[in-house]
């Protein structure tokens, strides 16, 4: 990961020399283009600073917090030097008050059991205290200057261990009781399917589809969209639409997913990743989108493009390889990237699943890909949640604990 002062040489012959914050160009830097052009100035979220300020009338300074525990070399081309702890950037200050705000939390994985570890035994898991961290998040959201209008719960609400202990109902009731005071939009993750069938989930309180849009994609797919504020749409996607999880072994859906998975994964244990690199994503605890869901997404985005809206997508599995460990990537990530890249309205893609979190700004499209740090691997004395304040030209994410602060500027093409 690039963090601090350094120089990166790009394959096209260009070069950036300046400051990085968790792989993102931020602060002062010089970009040399292959044709000899140069830009020296301030950078934020990978973007040249003046480009983002074309609409600004008044300016104020915003201190962006950065974590100080990442500082390693990227191949042999990144020169590591001391890291930046804080930086001051300038942002458009016209809309002092956000239009609205929302909360985000991922991978709570609550279970009333003692602490444990992930499969590789590299990260500790705090099953029992994860519900306490959810309470911290709810308390913080309730005291925010602009209270979140809704919460994006990015999946894996309770842990698969509950199934083994016949405690699934008790655990999900306990967590949903905490969430009853907020308008939560629930995304489904692999642990939902360890505990419950797809039919059960569709009939449960974990189905947060708004009234009226129940059958838009098809009766068995859990995907919908909603608009909390004029000009802004949020889309919840079903990452296990094509998957072994949640399907009866005798069903056509299971057989179709098994055929696909077996093409890439020859291991007896299908949770054991095949090969290296991006191939690792072909494991049973991941899934993908059907053609039906992709074409529904395409049609929703066609409408949001026409209305010049800003779209945020919520999904359990990340879809950009640079925003996650490849082990956690959606099976047909390339197909969904092709769809969202063909539309101008998508500004942000939010996911969970990879508990270490990740972030990548796709410069070509202006889409921010954020993977949220998981509550389950967050020590009881820390936190992992965010509040996102939405303005006309940007979203400001204020992270707590392991979640870093970020500013997501909207691409020019989205601005009305
Ligand atoms: N390399 C692996 N080989 C075999 N099984 C694995 C491997 N990695 C994970 N698993 C299994 O896959 C499931 C999901 O893995 P886990 O790391 O617990 O995912 P999550 O982060 O969603 O909790 C678990 O049942 C785990 O034991």
TrEMBL record:
InterPro entries reported in the protein's UniProt record: Calcineurin-like_PHP, Metallo-depent_PP-like, MORN, MPP_ADPRM
Keyword Coiled coil among UniProt keywords: no
MF (Gene Ontology): 2',3'-cyclic-nucleotide 2'-phosphodiesterase activity; ADP-ribose diphosphatase activity; CDP-glycerol diphosphatase activity; manganese ion binding
Annotated EC: 3.6.1.13, 3.6.1.16, 3.6.1.53
Catalyzed reactions per annotation: CDP-choline + H2O = phosphocholine + CMP + 2 H(+); CDP-glycerol + H2O = sn-glycerol 3-phosphate + CMP + 2 H(+); ADP-D-ribose + H2O = D-ribose 5-phosphate + AMP + 2 H(+)
Principal EC category: hydrolase
Assembly notes: Monomer.
Protein's recorded name: Manganese-dependent ADP-ribose/CDP-alcohol diphosphatase
Source species of the chain: Takifugu flavidus
């Amino acid at each position: 990961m690039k963090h601090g002062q350094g120089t990166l040489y790009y394959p096209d012959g260009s070069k950036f020399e300046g400051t990085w914050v968790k792989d993102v160009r931020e602060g002062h830097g010089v970009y040399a283009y292959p044709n000899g052009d140069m830009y020296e100035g301030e950078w934020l979220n990978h973007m040249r600073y003046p480009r983002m300020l074309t609409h600004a009338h008044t300016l104020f300074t915003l201190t962006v917090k950065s974590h100080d525990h990442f500082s390693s070399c990227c191949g042999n081309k990144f020169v590591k030097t001391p890291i930046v702890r804080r930086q001051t950037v300038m942002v458009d200050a016209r809309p002092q008050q956000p239009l609205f705000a929302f909360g985000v939390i991922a991978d709570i994985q609550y279970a009333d059991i003692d602490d444990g570890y992930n499969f590789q035994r590299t990260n500790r898991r705090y099953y029992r205290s994860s519900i306490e961290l959810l309470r911290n998040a709810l308390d913080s959201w309730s005291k925010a200057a602009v209270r979140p209008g809704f919460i994006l719960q990015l999946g894996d609400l309770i842990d698969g261990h509950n199934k083994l202990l016949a405690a699934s109902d008790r655990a999900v009731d306990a967590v949903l009781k905490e969430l009853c005071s907020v308008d939560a939009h629930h995304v489904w993750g692999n642990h939902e399917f360890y505990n419950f069938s797809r039919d059960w989930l569709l009939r449960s309180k974990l189905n947060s589809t708004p009234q009226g849009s129940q059958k838009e994609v098809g009766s068995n797919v859990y995907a919908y969209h909603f608009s909390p504020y004029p000009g802004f749409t949020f889309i919840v996607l079903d990452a296990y639409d094509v998957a072994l999880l949640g399907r009866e072994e005798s069903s056509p859906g299971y057989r179709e997913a098994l055929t696909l998975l077996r093409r890439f994964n020859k291991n007896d244990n299908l949770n054991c990743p095949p090969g290296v690199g991006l191939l690792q994503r072909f494991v049973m605890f991941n899934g993908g989108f059907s053609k039906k869901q992709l074409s529904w997404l395409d049609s929703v985005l066609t409408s949001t493009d026409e209305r010049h809206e800003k779209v945020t997508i919520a999904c359990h599995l990340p879809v950009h390889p640079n925003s996650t460990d490849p082990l956690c990537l959606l099976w047909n990530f390339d197909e969904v990237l092709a769809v969202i890249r063909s539309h101008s309205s998508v500004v942000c893609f939010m996911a969970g699943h990879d508990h270490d979190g990740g972030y990548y700004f796709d410069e070509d499209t202006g889409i921010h890909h954020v993977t949220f740090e998981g509550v389950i691997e967050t020590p009881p004395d820390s936190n992992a949640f965010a509040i996102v304040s939405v303005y006309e030209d940007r979203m400001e994410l204020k992270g707590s604990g392991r979640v870093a602060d970020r500013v997501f500027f909207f691409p020019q093409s989205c601005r009305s």
